[in-house]
Amino acid sequence: MSAEEKILFNVNNSPHVRDGDSTARIMFTVALLLVPALVWALFIFGWRAIVPIVSSVAACLLTESVCCRWRDRPNSIGDGSALVTGLLLAAVSPANLPWWAAAVGGVFAIGIGKQAFGGLGHNVWNPALLARAFMQVSMPNLMMSGEWPHLGGASWIGNLFYDLGGNFTEVNERVKSLAGAVTTVSRSFANDGGVDVLTGATVLARMKAAEAVDAAGQIIPALNPDWMEIIHAWMGGEGGSLGEVSALMLVLGGYFLIERKIISWDIPVFFLGTVAVLGLVLPHPYRLGEVYAYTGWFQGPWLLHLGSGGLMLGAFFMATDMVTTPLTVKGRRIFAVGCGCMTILIRLFAGYPEGVCYAILFMNTCVPFIDTLTKPKVFGKK
Amino acid sequence: MKELFRGGCHPPEKKDATADSPLRPAKAPPFVAVSFSQHIGKPSSPLVKIGERVLRGQKIAESQGFVSAPAHASVSGVAKGVVQLRHPLGFLVDALKIENDGKDEWHPDAVIEHDLDQLAAGDIRKLVQEAGIVGMGGATFPTHVKLSPPKDKSIDVLVLNGAECEPYLTADDRLMIEHPREILRGAALFAKAVGASRIVAGIENNKPGARQAMLEAARELGCGVEIFPLPVKYPQGAEKQLIYSILGRTVPSGGLPMDVGVLVHNMASLYAGYDACRFGHPLTERVVTVTGPGMGNPANLWVRIGTMASHLLEECGFDAGATKKLVVGGPMMGMPMRDLEWATSKGGNGILALTDPVAYEHGPCIRCGRCIEACPLGLLPCALSNYGEAGLLAESIEANALDCIECGCCSYVCPSKRPIVQWVRMEKAEINRLRQLAAAKK
User: Which residues does chain B have within 8 Å of residue A15's beta carbon, measured at their own beta carbons?
Assistant: First the structure.
């Protein structure tokens, strides 16, 4: 009865049961929940918007494969993280971005943003946002030409707004007057004289640039949005990048991210909460002739702040990226509040109209410090 | 209710297969192999000659030193010789093979009855020590040592551990349902031994039958035992977590429950303590839950210490072909066995035949933070796993690796399937080895 040397059963160490969740499941769920927003973008911008989506996803997957081969590592496409980066990059790209520009962004996101740091789990910054920042400085004309959605004519959502707005010309004129700098208006006369494509400054850009005259002849801040404008921002009537156009779809995706326990509610709630509060409370600068003037306290268009720009995308899909956010719940809350503050600071007082991207990248940089400051208390240690 | 301990996880309970199966004796084994190392501490040394007939309850190996426990024959029969068996931790240990003559004759020294009221604290400790009782939840720390706290530690609460938070296991559950009086009497004895004035039994809420039985028995005996319902959460049964959940006391890092005036005992140990003090029976059998998807007839069995796994599993319809992993203990902290050439021991409360995938490819840490939320000790398991992977011992010490209780929650929740607790175990072992080396040099 001497102990046989034959091993019949697996002897790896406990625990012998594991939770069913996996990295791949997390990543593919995130990708899936981004789809509604991107499909919405297709409705709004038309089929052409598929170009940057396909191009950046393909570039990300390809770069991931090539880098894994160079680094002599098993191919990690299967973990789904490159797919998520590709979709997120598409979501922060304008709809009329040429395919090659989207591809360059994808190569940068994965090659420099992720693999150069050692691959999944080791990157400091969110790869998609890093690529967006890169593209914004290296091809600003392509990135800033925020395309306006179809207004009237080609897309049903446009018709919806057309109906809401009552009269297209009226809407158009108002938009033009607000935007101040509508760059192109290409008209198509095929369909009740609607406009096909309209490019111009987004509502956030207008916020700073605009001035208006009220009934009494006084110059007032143009951004005193009516409901129409807020609905526009939330539903995708505004211009912007692909994933920015529908705050509502992003909230929907975000809700399921929380419900499926992929992310916790902390980051979105603290991020959005900070933006809403500061967006309401802080005085907003606006142009008064050659100088800037400020609105009073507690007059900010907070609903517009929430619905516009990449905020929802940032709050639910970017600032919740596990790799580039703090480890503990407390740390994540600090991180999210920081993101909110930076977003508003950039939106109101810095050179760029939109602050979410840089706010998150800035806070990504702070993660190691936050982690050090928020270590949990060890049980029984003084 | 006081705040529950931090962290933890909820692995599927899987207790249904055996929760309603009453305790019954396992089939008499043709022979037993009683190990001399069934406890933490020095192995005991053999007392009997080969070829000698031994009786049930006869001491066959004497303890070596205070932190050690004697071993007893669990059947009557002829001592055939010393054999080597695989210990759950992987190494080989000596065991005495005794051929069962089927008569089950008790040794006269093992049937001396006592009037419990007459027993003084010292008598109880002595009887427990002589009976070879160890922590039967799996830790196998000699019970008489726990009953002999140093003079400067006063113990006011005895906590009865009825959490049984490991999935699959129902041994304590059944013991509480069927023998609550014995357990409570054992608790009263242990409380007397350490001078504890208060006894609290913590029972997880997934064991309503056990709680009811214990409540009724406590009322009937009038012994003033409090029954404390615990929310179901793993590792509720870990000493520090149990004490915190029930009493709100925090055992200091590196300390023991007695540092906060508490003594925790497992239900099976309490039962054995009663059996030893009342009837003089040494520990020769225990309840084992034999279950898992690879077991055709899962059951809760009274198993003689030293019963060979092959014999026991046959009775339970063990499917060797389908089983990928054979575990002694629960699925979260139990020990995997490589074959069937081993015998049951005092600490083994369950045997699981698992058929699921048993090995995982692990990916990089994605910093999701789930392990931190799950860690009951408030450690940073993800950081520890990285240190383990890279072999950074100084960083591991700095990150409190030695506080880890190895519950395995971190590995359980990790979406990258990283063997986190396994790395921490490695770090702890290495740190302790180096410290021992350093101490030996001095």
Answer: 11, 331-333, 408, 411-412, 421
- Per the CB < 8 A criterion, the answer to whether A108 and A139 are in contact is no
Residue A47's identity, in one-letter code, is W
Compute the average pLDDT of residues B291-300: 95
Interface probe with A: pick from B295, B416, B422, most Cβ of A within 10 Å: B416
Give the Cα separation of A150 and A41 in Å (integer).
11
Q: What is the pTM of this model?
A: 0.88
- Which tens digits make up the pLDDT trace of B126-170? 999 999 999 998 888 999 999 999 999 999 999 999 999 999 999
In chain B, domain spans: 111-279, 370-441
User: What count of other Cβ atoms lies within 10 Å of the Cβ of residue A358?
Assistant: 19
Instruction: Sheet containing B92-100: give its strands across.
Output: B31-35, B92-100, B77-86, B53-54
Residue with tokens 């309209």: A198
Q: Where are the domains of chain A?
A: 23-144
pLDDT band at A185 (very low <50, low <70, confident <90, very high): very low
- For B224: left if phi > 0, alpha if psi spans -120 to 50, otherwise beta; the answer is left
Among all residues of chain B, which has the CA nearest to that of A320?
A: B368
Q: What is the layout of strands, in order, in the sheet containing B299-304? A: B24-25, B299-304, B285-291, B350-354, B325-328, B335-337
CA–CA gap between residue B78 and residue A107 (Å, rounded) = 76
Residues of B in contact with A4 (CB under 8 A): 339, 341
Q: Nearest-CA residue of chain B relative to A14?
A: B333
Q: Which pLDDT score is estimated for B424?
A: 95
Q: From the list B320, B341, B412, which residue is nearest A19 (CB)?
A: B412
CA distance B151 to chain A (A): 23
Residue B34 Cα, gap to closest chain A Cα (Å): 13
Q: Where are the beta strands (DSSP E) in B348-423?
A: 350-354
ipTM, 2 decimals? 0.89
Tokens of A336: 């999210």
Q: Can you read off the two tokens belonging to residue B251?
A: 């055992």
Q: How far apart are CA A139 and CA A127, in angstroms?
A: 17
Give B299-331 as a DSSP string.
EEEEEETTBBHHHHHHHTTB-TTT-SEEEES-T
Non-local CB neighbours of B292 within 8 Å, separated by 6+ positions: B168, B298, B323, B327, B351, B352, B353, B354, B355
Which fold, B111-279?
Answer: Rossmann fold (3.40.50)
Q: What is the pLDDT of residues B220-234, one digit of tens each?
A: 998 889 999 999 999
Mutate to test the interface with B, among A4, A5, A17 (most CBs of B within 10 A): A17
Rounded Cα gap, residues B416 and A126, in angstroms: 19
Nearest to B268 by CA among B252, B288, B251, B249: B288
- Spatial contact of B42 and B65, defined as CB atoms under 8 Å apart: yes
Q: Which residue of B has its CA nearest to A368?
A: B367
The residue behind tokens 């074959």 is B339
